[in-house]
Amino acid sequence: MFDIPFFTQIEEAEKILLCGAGGGFDVLGGVPLYFYLKELNKKIRFASYSFTDFNNIKGKFINEHCKVINYDTPISRDYIYFPEKILTDWFHNEQNIDVPIYTIKRIGPMLLRKTYEVIFEHFKYDTIILVDGGTDSLLLGNENKLGSFYEDITSIISVDNLKIDNIYQTYLMVMGFGVDAHHGVSHYDVLSSIADLVKRDSFLGSLSLTKEMMHVENYISLIEYANQKLPHHQSIVHNSIVDAIKGNFGNFHSTDRTTGSHLFINPLMAQIWFFDTFQMVQRIPYARKLSSARDLDEVERIISEFRRKVGIKRRQSIPL
């Protein structure tokens, strides 16, 4: 009775693409799920909608917008901002596994959809799971502050429009509830969106990451490894989640990047939530326009037009 619907739905899935949805370190959040799905004998590949400057990496292009990178992919200099390389290096150095990662430029939904279709020719996936560090991907677009919503909605729209037969389903996994407050997001708006998605049968359950879980130990090891390799770019999101998993609370700072801000580390950050992306897209009135956008400037224009048309919500706080 306690199996959440997400795991019931993916029972028949065989080949799964785990994708960082919003750029940056999002892809690292898929690691606990990766190890669990491997235990279920699923074949897994990683992809990442990346913030990395492609001029600094030498990976093999599969189209003009995507490179496959491995632990031995040459980079132009040490310590560049390259979370995908950190991930594949950690798998090689700490887990003795060679894990390639499809690393994708910051492009609009139309080009991103076409890139996922090209990836399909290399890895015949039947399921896509987008991973978002933070919960701003659940917003509608007319909230007071949006966090990194443009990149997240680009990924969600692109996978919803895939022209591929025999895909079971596409999903979104979010983690780090409360982290986006650092960037001004109101979690009253996030909970309001979740309630609407519950009504639409998009919400597929949630669970907590605990420090006793073996796969969570791997995730903590990865974040600590990333902190060492990129000391000036330590992930605020993932360090906050790890702090919550370890039981830290309140205005706790484990990275200098948050110095001067007021944090609220809390147990809800250690939860992961699952959603059906099809039902998510049904609630977005500008989804069709967005699906034809070629770049993020166009994405921003479409959402700005929507915000002007419907008005921006008044900011509200959670009354607890």
What features would you highlight for this structure?
11 helices, nine-stranded mixed beta sheet, single chain, globular, about 35% helix, about 325 residues
Describe this structure in words.
The chain is of the alpha/beta class and 320 residues long. The protein has one domain. The protein is 37% helix and 16% strand. The chain is built from 11 helices and 9 strands. The chain has helices at 5-9, 31-39, 83-95, 109-122, 149-160, 187-199, 214-229, 236-245, 277-282, 287-291, 296-310; strands spanning 15-20, 43-49, 60-63, 66-69, 101-104, 127-133, 169-175, 203-208, 271-276. The chain has a 9-stranded mixed β-sheet, sandwiched between helices. The longest helix has 16 residues, at 214-229. It is globular and about 50 Å long. The mean pLDDT is 93.
| H and E order | HEHEEEHEHEHEHEHHEHHH
What is the count of helical runs?
Answer: 11
Helix/sheet category: alpha/beta
Silhouette:
globular
Note the gap between the termini. 30 Å
